[in-house]
Design a protein that fits this description.
Among the domains are: about 1-100, Immunoglobulin-like (Sandwich), CATH 2.60.40; about 105-205, Cadherins (Immunoglobulin-like, Sandwich), CATH 2.60.40.60; about 215-310, Immunoglobulin-like (Sandwich); about 320-330 and about 340-405, Immunoglobulin-like, CATH 2.60.40; about 415 and about 440-535, Immunoglobulin-like (Sandwich), CATH 2.60.40. By secondary structure, it is mostly beta strands. The chain is rod-shaped, with a radius of gyration of 71 Å. It is built from 2 helices and 46 strands. A hairpin with a 5-residue loop joins β38 and β39 (about 500). A 5-stranded mixed β-sheet has the order 26-31-30-28-29, with no helix packed on it. A 4-stranded mixed β-sheet has the order 1-7-6-3, with no helix packed on it. Strands 9-16-15-12 form a 4-stranded mixed β-sheet, with no helix packed on it. Helix content is about 5%, strand content about 40%. GO terms for molecular function: calcium ion binding. Its main location: membrane. It holds the Pfam family Cadherin. It is a single-pass type I membrane protein.
């Protein structure tokens, strides 16, 4: 037989389970029964005698049950009578231990450690914990919960699924804020009373390179003087990176690479120092960029701009745009008129660049202020000084060369001959007499000359000499026959002033020819002087007499009533006298010219054929200077000089010279007294 018994595992020791006794049909002692129980450490058999002498068995719990260890106990109960022989009967006791919630859930680890990248997204599965409960039924059903977060902010980013034990992220991690989360997970069963188990979870946040370096300027010493020495500290900087490891190791550089550099003596601390000399005039302000880069993969970068102005020191002297200024001034400029304007540049700033000007005489070393006037001759070449207002002041200078540009303010003036007579020179075929004063625009002077009938074309009768006190084109003279107009027997060289026969003279030309010759310069407007030349036409013999007996009256008439037919000896004497007079005249003229060229002062010279040095050029003309060998051009006051300053105005070319003899007189260079 079998008997099933259910017993709660939480039944205390001593608990009794009454068993149904056996029956025996015999009587007497043969019906007296005794019971025995198979060996068991948990159960024992307790027999109770009844009044009738029968015994009733009870099953007694001797030791607490543990369903999780032995869920079912199988025992054999044996009943024996007292007959001879004794008969027995058995019954199997199947004791099922009923579960009680006596087992708390248990995790397979007491401490869980897990690592998660800080850039893990929300909902990421971190891990799964598992707790088991040896109970059965609802006593073994477990739910999970997270608690005891350190730091408390962990409950905002970490969650545990109550049913599965899955730990997931419900917020963003930040290694720089919290690198480790420490919390507990409770596993609770559904028994009554519920039992729970716990485990510890250490969640380590792994750093990723999600933070760029940071650069701060902690100290700034600006502006920096441009004469600051190399190594001067301009700024102090602090550099950090919230990441860790290689992600937090920062390297710094500076851009541009010059004139500044970085030095470091402590971790995360840098000094911005001067590596090269500064020049404010070249760069007045620097925009320096300090760049930081960490060691992450990929690296992150950051920068900080530092504005470094450079303050000025007086290290630049005023500088003129030209070392030498050439100034052209018209000769009739009014007093106080501006001749030129010079300018000196000082790249320094403020007072260091504020420039004042003064005239400076290099010989005496004295400054000439604007309050006094000096002779114009002292300003032909002078020095202008520019002084800045720095401390100490710096000086620059420039030389100003002043050239006076001639204006046509002088009319041509007729010159007397070398012998002291009128402005006419004797040549072969003509003599002069009388006295002459220089002609001007106000009037003219009458000159006298003689020419022989039969003189061939091209015979020079006389030479008109004139001079103009101006220079250049204003002093370049040309000669024209004003009267008679048309084709007369005489002509004048356009530039030489030589009066010569235009054709052979004939008796039909009359005893006298009157020429009005005008002398003009090339100025604008041109000025002129006129001379009246009276040419007497005589026979060859009368000419000789005139030459031999000329007087101060300006005209000697030939004798009248000579012999109708001269003898051969008279003709010989005449030619002898003519030869002697000619030789004497040439000798005297040579002496006069030699004396004039030897002792008379020269005021102008004509440059030789060699090229001259260009001094300056402008829209009005160009100046040239030469020290070539020169020859005398005219006679005036002043000492002779060997150098020559020539001014060539920008004027249209002069008219062509029609006469063949005049073409030998090339256009002269303009003259300037030097």
């Amino acid at each position: 037989a079998r008997k099933n018994i259910s017993l709660s595992e939480n039944s205390p020791p001593g608990s009794r389970l009454p068993l149904e006794g056996a029956s025996d049909a015999d009587v007497g002692s043969n019906a007296q029964l005794s019971y025995t129980l198979s060996p068991s450490e948990h159960f024992a058999l307790d027999l109770e005698k009844l009044n009738e002498g029968n015994t009733v068995p009870d099953l007694v719990l001797r030791k607490p049950l543990d369903r999780e260890t032995v869920p079912v106990h199988r025992l054999v109960l044996t009943a024996s009578d007292e007959g001879r022989p004794s008969l027995t009967g058995t019954m199997e006791l199947v004791i099922t231990v009923l579960d009680a919630n006596d087992m708390a859930p248990r995790f397979n680890q007491s401490v869980y450690k897990v690592q998660v990248l800080e850039n893990a997204t929300e909902g990421t599965l971190v891990m799964r914990v598992n707790a088991t409960d040896s109970d059965e039924g609802s006593n073994s059903e477990v739910t999970y919960a997270a608690m005891n977060f350190i730091p408390p902010s962990g409950r905002d980013v970490i969650s545990v699924d109550p049913q599965t034990g899955e730990i997931r992220l419900k917020g963003a991690l930040d290694f720089e804020e919290v690198s480790v989360f420490d919390f507990r997970i409770e596993a609770r069963d559904k028994g009554w009373p519920p039992l729970s188990g716990h485990c510890k979870v250490l969640l380590e946040v792994l750093d990723v390179n999600d933070n760029a370096p940071e650069v701060w300027v902690t100290s700034l010493s600006v502006p920096v003087s441009e004469d600051a020495s190399v190594g001067t500290v301009v700024a102090l900087l602090s550099v950090s990176d919230r990441d860790s490891g290689a992600n937090g190791r920062v390297q710094c550089s500076v851009w541009p690479t010059s004139p500044f550099g970085l030095e470091t003596r402590f971790l995360g601390s840098y000094s911005l120092v001067l590596r090269e000399a500064l020049d404010r005039e070249r760069v007045s302000e620097y925009e320096v960029e300090v760049r930081a880069e960490d060691g992450g993969k990929p690296p992150l970068r950051a920068s900080r701009g530092v504005r470094v102005p450079v303050c000025d020191v007086n290290d630049n002297a005023p500088a003129f745009s030209q070392a030498v200024y050439t100034v052209l001034a018209r000769e009739n400029e009014a007093a106080g008129a501006e001749l030129a304007r010079v300018w000196a540049r000082d790249p320094d700033e403020a007072g260091n660049g504020r420039v004042s000007y003064s005239l400076w005489e290099g010989v005496s070393g004295a400054s000439v202020s604007g309050g006094g006037w000096r002779p114009a001759s002292s300003y032909v070449s002078f020095e202008v000084r520019a002084v800045d207002a720095g401390e100490p002041p710096l000086v620059g200078n420039a030389t100003v060369q002043l050239f006076v540009v001639d204006e046509n303010d002088n009319a041509p003036v007729l010159l007397p001959p070398a012998g002291g007579g009128p402005g006419l020179d004797p040549f072969a075929g003509g003599v002069v007499g009388g006295s002459v004063e220089a002609a001007s625009d106000a009037g003219s002077e009458t000159l006298w000359a003689w020419a022989a009938w039969g003189a061939p074309a091209g015979q020079v009768v006389a030479k008109i000499r004139a001079v103009d006190a101006d220079s250049g084109y204003n002093a370049w003279l040309r000669y024209e026959v004003l009267e008679p107009r048309g084709k007369g027997p005489f002509r004048v060289g356009l530039y030489s002033g030589e009066v010569s026969t235009a054709r052979a003279l004939e008796e039909a030309d009359g005893p006298r020819q009157r020429l009005v010759i005008v002398v003009r310069d090339h100025g604008e407007p041109s000025r002129s002087a006129t001379a009246t030349l009276s040419v007497s036409l005589v026979e060859g013999g009368e000419k000789v007499l005139a030459v031999g007996g000329s007087s101060s009256s300006g005209l000697v008439l030939p004798a009248e009533g000579g012999a109708a037919a001269g003898s051969a000896s008279a003709s010989t004497n005449v030619w002898l006298v003519v030869g002697i007079c000619a030789v004497s005249s040439v000798f005297v003229l040579a002496l006069v010219l030699y004396g004039a060229s030897r002792w008379a002062p020269r005021s102008a010279v004509l440059s030789g054929p060699a090229p001259a040095t260009l001094v300056c050029a402008s829209e009005v003309g160009s100046w040239s200077y030469s020290q070539r060998q020169s020859r005398s051009l005219c006679v005036a006051d002043g000492a002779g000089k060997s150098d020559l300053m020539v001014f060539s105005p920008n004027l249209p070319p002069p008219p062509s010279v029609p006469a063949a003899k005049d073409t030998s007189q090339a256009e002269p260079s303009s003259l300037l007294d030097t």
